[in-house]
Amino acid sequence: MAALPNPFSDPVTLNEKPAVDAITANANANAHVQGPPTKRMKSTALPPAEPYKAVPKPWTTKPNPRARISYYLTWTLFIVGMGLGGLQSALTYRGVRLDRQPLCLVFEDNFNSGDDAAVFGTASTPGRWLREVDLSGFGNGEFEMTTGSSNNSFLLDDMLYLVPTLTNDGQPFADGTTYNATDCTFNLTAPGGGYNIGGKNADGTGDGAQFDWSGYYTACSRTTNDTAGTIINPIQSARLSTLVSARSGSESTLSRGSIRYGRVEFRAKMPRGDWLWPAIWMLPVNNTYGPWPASGEIDIVESRGNGLQYTNRGANYVQGSLNWGPNVLLNGVSKSYSWWSDRRKLFSSDFHTYALEWTDKFLRISVDSRLHTLLDMPFDKPFYTRGEFPPTIIDTHGQAVAVQNPWQNGTNATPFDQDFYLIMNVAVGGTNGWFPDGQGDKPWVNHAGNPPVDFVSGMGQWGPTWPQDFRDRAMVVDYVKMWKHCGDP
After folding, report:
1. Can you tell me the distance from the alpha carbon of 226 to that of 24, in angstroms, rounded to the nearest whole number?
2. Which residues lie below 8 Å from residue 419, measured CB to CB, with a gap of 6+?
3. pLDDT tens profile 25-45
4. Where are the transmembrane segments (predicted)?
5. pTM for the whole thing?
6. What does the alpha-carbon distance between residue 399 and residue 319 come to, in Å, rounded to a whole number?
7. CATH 2.60.120.200: does it fit domain 109-177+224-485?
8. Residue 374 contacts by C-beta under 8 Å, 6 or more apart in sequence?
9. In the chain, where the domains are located
10. What SS3 class is residue 24?
11. Which of 245, 293, 486, 264 shows the shortest CA–CA distance to 358?
């Protein structure tokens, strides 16, 4: 291969091409080794440009009439919708029933451990709560007796526990066995209460003929009689009330146990177990308008311990209601009850805060938030009108009797215009319809057979659903507070 000329020492003329010739010769010589020469791609010329076309300018184009209408219609509807939404919100806000009266705290109990004497009282000094002792079933055919025992109501870990337990392991006593509740409180809690045994009031006044001896024996004694089919109550439980402190009217230590209008609030966990019936509710201090339900009843919360499989609103439901009516055969509760449910968990699995708001214009019950309303009842018409009661009824003796309006001289709030006190209890079973026939594996029929005996006979069905841990079988209450309207007596 010929050497390339040195550009600095060997000048090359324009006609001389030794390097190029040498490279070309070398390439030709080796053509048989390297193959044919590489072909170059043919250049592709761009197509000739099309002549310029005029494009109409947007600002000179006449708009589509439909587009203009759609544009303005969209914005008009948006603005109108926003305005109507704002108006609705304002009207709804103004229409929400709120208690705007200043509130004064009159009762508070945080159930601090070791505070048993102040909570339950002693033999000589009443406490904030009365342990009601009664075997009567409280008019509902309940199967439990309520006791003054610390097995059924006690303080633990700064909480109040109301726990149902078995009497005699849930088995009937021998025929002829009599159970006398020596600490029975019927003489205190009966209508016109305050009686000592013998028909005298606690202050020494009164007539012995006024005392309900039949009611006393029913409430304070029970005998197992195989022939009659009666048994001693198979369950023991607890029922606590502020009746005694309500009658005392003391406000100096936040222990006045009643209000007429105001607010009640408590934090509680419901019990778990078939046929358990927890409730926190209120009754009138005095039956101003007559015997129940004429003087009213406020059920702040009731529930059932049955699980999710129960078909009549089990432990994932809580209910609020009002009971009222001109006599015991006519109760308007069907027009004044509602409930709240949690589809994801039971109310026995955690604590919830329940609240009652009560004025002469409305009554509202809610759980955790006003948005979770158990009952919202406006007092916008008389309760007798609301009830649409018949002019006559057939009484228990088969006689037609005229229905009288017990509230004819009252207001739209009557009978819920009096002082009411607070009750907390865990009932078991009953024949009043709270547990309807034909729902779940109910072992008794409300008005057939012998319900208490049938209930005990079905213990193999409901017994395993009662948790062994009393913390889960109990209604547990964290605190209770009551406020009244500051201007009220």
Report:
1. 132
2. 246, 258, 259, 260, 284, 285, 286
3. 454 555 454 555 555 555 566
4. 69-91
5. 0.81
6. 35
7. yes
8. 300, 301, 318, 319, 320, 338, 339, 340, 354, 365, 366, 367
9. 109-177+224-485
10. helix
11. 264
